[in-house]
Amino acid sequence: MTSRGLKASPEGIKAAKTALTDKTLSQQKLATALGITRQPVSKFFAGEPVSRSCFVQICQQLGLSWQQVAGMDYFDVSEITSSLTSQKADINALVGELRQKCQEKIQDQCSTLQMLDVARAVPLDEIYTSVEVLPEVTSQKWRDIADFKDNSALDGNNNCNTLPGLEVVLRSPKLMLLGKSGSGKTTFLQYLAIACNQGKFQPHLVPVFVRLKEFAEDAQDEGEFNLLQYISQSLNCCDVDEKATVSILSRGSVLIILDGLDEVPLEYTDIVTREIRKFTQIYYKNQFVISCRISAYKYRFPGFTEVELADFNDKQIEIYVKNWLVVVAHQSVIDGETNSKLFLQNLNLPENQRIRELARVPLLLHLICLSFQAKGQFTYNLVNLYEQVLNVLLSRWDETRGIKRDDFYTNLNLGSKKKLIAHIAATTFTNGEYFFEQERIQQLLFEFLPNINNSSLQQSLTPLDHTSALQGLIFQDSLLVERARGIYSFTHLGLLEYLTARDILGKSCNLVNESLINHITQERWYHVFLFITNMLCRADEAIIYMSNYIADIVANDEQIQAYLAWLNQKAQLVKTKNNASAVRAFYFVCSVGLGDSENYLFEWEFLGNLAFQSELALDELLFNILNYVDDLKLAFGNNCSYTHIFNQARLLNITFDEAIDLVGDGEFKQEIYQIKKQLPCTESNPEKFYLWWQINYHLWQTRLRDNLIKYRNIGHDWQWRDLQLEKLKKYLYANKLIIDCLRSKVNIQQELKQQIEDKLFLSLTDNQLQ
After folding, report:
1. What is the DSSP code string of 473-511?
2. What is the C-alpha separation between 685 and 682, in angstroms, rounded?
3. pLDDT tens track for 237-292
4. What is the pTM (predicted TM-score) of this model?
5. Alpha carbon 564 to chain centroid distance?
6. Residues 713, 587: contact at Cβ < 8 Å?
7. How many CB atoms lie within 10 A of CB 319?
8. Which of 48, 208, 351, 669 could make a disulfide contact with 663, Cβ separation 3.0–4.6 Å?
9. DSSP string covering 617-661, please?
10. d(CA 646, CA 447)
11. What does the DSSP 8-state code read for residue 718?
């Protein structure tokens, strides 16, 4: 049966014109979207008859009821339904046919990765790690600098409230995927294309993958930026003609992946952006995913959901490392499993915190894996690692992928760029400015750029100006990141510290600087000093200067000097094969109440397993007893609950029992047992324990201390003032810094190294006798 034509009523034409305007379409764009010529569309709006199928398609595209537009009270439902069902079957068959034809091309485009410093292509499905996204783009949040209370935002672990990447793509027909350099945007988009190609994701769609850099380059050569034509030509290689391409696009049967908007040369960005906007509006029925570096994203496409690719979490790091060792390093599955566990155990050590921060970015985790493979063990020179990170982010990552970005400051060579960013880092870090506004960056540029040595400038017709340098820093180099609207910071805390050290050495070449050495007791400068001592060609003078400065911290306090003399005396009485300075450090940590620092400091490699030696283990337990007694005194003074007091008393009893088991001296063992026996049981009558404590505490504690002093020479009540405790804390921290510098790859004479280590935690008198 031949279907009869339909024509729009006057009211239907009016409704159709309104719908056309609302959808920002012209009659030509409507025809293009439907894959038909302009003639039937013109007839439709003129109220002339057009074929039933064409009439229905136009109404559906405009979101209108074709029966109402036609003004009909009667219609042949079976005929129209049969026609539309036939069309749907035809399009499904066409999609299936095109998916089969394009399968090899998509596999060729997207199934492998070219990884930095890896000679061969790596199969994507063997190394791919599922990604997470932040539903709210960080740089679009409205916050003040005061909202960033500390530098925790720089640790690279901000994966709160993330969502699986695939889930977000499924529920977002138009998605803009933003991310930092090396965050895995392209890898994820290639995975989407392959998953769709294999029928694992959106199996009813035909995947099309477009690298926007290549589109811009080809369009420039041909003189026409036409995305439809570019896609048609791409599919034509798969024996898909233009009519079939337009047909599936018009019906929304394509997954269109546009990768790397930030990689389009600056002079073509506007025209490419306009072309994408027009294309996404005409073929709006399709699913779109576009990727862009977050710092370069300016124009917002209407109707698109914007999300940010999250840093790797611990589980993702684990999966990536295991896959990397098997696929890239060619290890067996068993060896890959074993070595990945070794890798992760070392990565999670406290001393590797800065490496762990870098590892949350896939590109930088790849660099860490390369170093692990080369050395066969987890040993890293942080100076070399961060210099590699700088080189990769400033130039190598783009160079290896053939991306030539618009160099906003072409007359600065790589060395001068490093000096510029190091100046900004050192100035802001010294002032405690972990977060700053754009105006602050601009101010620092004004200070620095006029001082650049002319010999470092490349010949360029474009004069160096602050605006272009600012654009390069913020939008291109990926060393700065926008943490909230208009608020910036360095991408990683370790990078900020390394650049600060780089700037300091670039200006002074040594540590013999009073303004710098004053920071030695400040914990936030710890890694800066480590970097500086490791970057020096010879660190002898710097280490001596640091050591002398640390000794001066407590030089004029007689009580602290007496304490250090006791520390040395006690260490000499202990029978151990360990270094005497390590034993002194052990007793320092045990005997000075410095809060949480104790647990952290016991993790020193310098202290080793001292606490597992019987004498030292006993003394540690005895110090713990004193600490629990002090805690109980505080709990009673603050009227804490009986439950809290009971828990403290229970810990005290358990520690007493453990200590008694280790005591070898029979007389002391009997004394300590009797002291413990005096404590009443708290479980049966907490009030009785409270009354006992009020009456007997002072005499009981005095007896405890007297016996610890008599038999173990510990337990002296030094009665430190708050200022002395603060001074001791700085002294302990600074000595730990010296130890860590000496244990790192610092270039220092071995004899001098041993001399400095031997003098750690000594009084001035004992120091002179060494």
Report:
1. IIIISSSEEEEETTEEEES-HHHHHHHHHHHHHHHHSSS
2. 6
3. 888 888 888 889 988 999 999 999 988 988 899 999 999 999 999 999 999 999 99
4. 0.79
5. 43
6. no
7. 16
8. 669
9. HHHHHHHHHHHHHHHHHHHHHTT--HHHHHHHHHHHHHHHHHHHH
10. 62
11. -
